[in-house]
Amino acid sequence: ILAYQPDPELMQYYRNTLVNFGLMKFLKDFVPERITKIDLCRLVLNLGYPKESISNQRFLTTKQVAGILVSLILNDPQVNQSQSYSDFAAYHHPTSDYTIPKLLSDLTSAKKIMVISGAGISTSLGIPDFRSFKGLYAQLEHLNLKDPQKVFDMGAFQKDPSIFYSIAHLVLPPEGRFSMLHSFIKLLQDKGKLLRNYTQNIDNLESRVGIHPDKLIQCHGSFGSASCLTCSNRFAGHKIFEHIRHQHVPRCSTCWKTIQEAVIIHGVIKPDITFFGEDLPKKFYRLLEPDCQTCDLVIVVGTSLKVEPVSSIIDKIPRSVPRVLINKDPIPDRDFDLSLIGLCDDVVCHLTRELGASWDIPHPNFVPSTEFTVTPHELYSKSYNIVKKET
Ligand code: OAD
């Protein structure tokens, strides 16, 4: 094949099709489903790409040559400028073989990283997540609720706020501590790379670690503030922490004076957490669309992605943007380019170690000399287990 002389007329025809009609049309017209490796190589040469790009084709599989062809086209500046290219790129990830080295290089170059986080980023601090084996919902069996999520249900709270206050202490944030993952998000912010952190967490630790309010969307609200359900007066969240610790229902002192015994909810203060049945903050809806269109890397971390609308965010992001999962458990039914399975603090420690000293995470538990084992996941493709090496 390397002795093959490209046909100038064919080259003109192929390139015209690509530039004017885009990659999809080109593939549809010139790449049959059962194309041979030799024919793919001819296409590469007839498009005017150098022989060197396929010079070791004897050792490549047909799929690899097809990958080379697509990648040459996607990186071709002439094709790149055409409108059809961007249409294609929006739906097809150019690097289906996304790897850890590629992620490292993207972390270095990315400027608009979206982090979508959940309860798993706080479990290392002793706050339970919700749906794990020993998560909060598993700890609520004694309440005999048909659905443990009812403890965060607005209708149920209005009927009897004491149920929520009997368990809220279990998810109360610890004073003055945050996890290495929280510090990693702060590091992304300090490096000017954080577009937004969409967190489902209510512990408010993102604010405590220093994520700027403009960079943070607390999709489910937080313990950071609380409001009286009668007069809507707003309080600093910590004002009701003692009540929460003692499992008492806090009440607003102004409304308390006019308490009507018959109305159980009168003057009750509720943390500004978004309960099921309540709307998410307006900021979420205002920023979601533009953020999805501008982000250049998505990191989903410590969440089972079970709760809407956060679980659908990744479906709104153009397919050309790499999406990476960092989680203790795989989420096989969602389409990630790369899944790094392990404790999130360990995973980011490994990644930042690989990136060098300028990426040291400012956290007391960050030890740059820690070593990790990285192995392909036994069940799922594009997934790796990352585990701290025993010392
Ligand atoms: P879940 O409990 O559903 O999922 C937590 C995920 O984090 C699981 O997939 C765990 O495997 C993973 N995980 C736990 N510890 C981890 C660690 N150290 N490192 C990495 N991964 C870890 O929690 P969320 O997805 O956050 O709503 O739940 C979403 C919403 O459901 C919550 O915001 C909450 C709940 O109902 C409200 O509070 C209103």
Keywords, separated by commas or semicolons:
391 residues, alpha/beta, Rossmann fold, eight-stranded mixed sheet, 34% helix, 14% strand, binds 2'-O-acetyl adenosine-5-diphosphoribose
Total helical elements: 14
Name of the top-level CATH class of the largest domain: Alpha Beta
The number of domains? 3
Strand order of the largest sheet: 3-2-1-7-8-9-11-10
Order of helices and strands: HHHHHHEHHHEHEEEHHEHEEEHEE
Shape: elongated
> What composes the largest sheet?
8 strands, mixed
> How many individual β-strands?
11
- Unreliable stretches (pLDDT < 50, length at least 5) are 83-95
- Distinct ligands, ions and cofactors found in the model: 2'-O-acetyl adenosine-5-diphosphoribose
Question: What's the CATH topology label of the largest domain?
Answer: Rossmann fold
Per CATH, the architecture of the largest domain is: 3-Layer(aba) Sandwich
Considering DSSP H and I runs of 4 or more, what fraction of the residues is helical? Answer: 25-40%
Strand content: 5-15%
The name of the CATH superfamily of the largest domain reads TPP-binding domain
The N- and C-terminal alpha carbons lie at a distance of: 53 Å
Q: Cα-atom Rg, whole angstroms?
A: 26 Å
Structural class: alpha/beta
Question: Please, what is the average pLDDT?
Answer: 90
Keywords: Metal-binding, NAD, Transferase, Zinc
GO molecular function: histone H4K16 deacetylase activity, NAD-dependent; metal ion binding; NAD+ binding
Family: Belongs to the sirtuin family. Class I subfamily.
Binding site for Zn(2+): 228, 231, 252, 255
